[in-house]
Design brief:
The protein is an alpha+beta fold. The chain is built from two helices and five strands, in the order E-H-E-E-E-H-E. The protein has a single domain, classed as Roll (SH3 type barrels), CATH 2.30.30. The longest helix has 9 residues, at about 20-30. The protein is globular, with a radius of gyration of 10 Å. It starts with 9 loop residues before the first strand and ends with a strand.
């Protein structure tokens, strides 16, 4: 399911990132990688707040729709 549709306060595994290479490279640099763990803190249609490793990130809705989690 897309990250934007996932329930809050849950940990997920990133299954696929459907973005262009530049965006994938940037996400990889900040720790968002396929197979990695991500915790959704809160989310709306406009964006989500997630915890990756030790830090929090805010991702806009368009990008959150491209990150598939399970």
């Amino acid at each position: 399911m897309p990250l934007i549709m996932a329930p809050a306060n849950s940990e997920f595994e990133i299954k696929k990132i459907s973005a262009d290479d530049k965006t994938k490279r940037h996400l990889r640099e900040i720790g968002v990688i396929e197979g990695g763990k991500i915790t959704l803190v809160s989310g709306t249609n406009a964006g989500v707040i997630v915890v990756v490793k030790e830090g929090r990130l805010c991702l806009d809705g368009a990008l959150a729709r491209k990150i598939l989690v399970a």
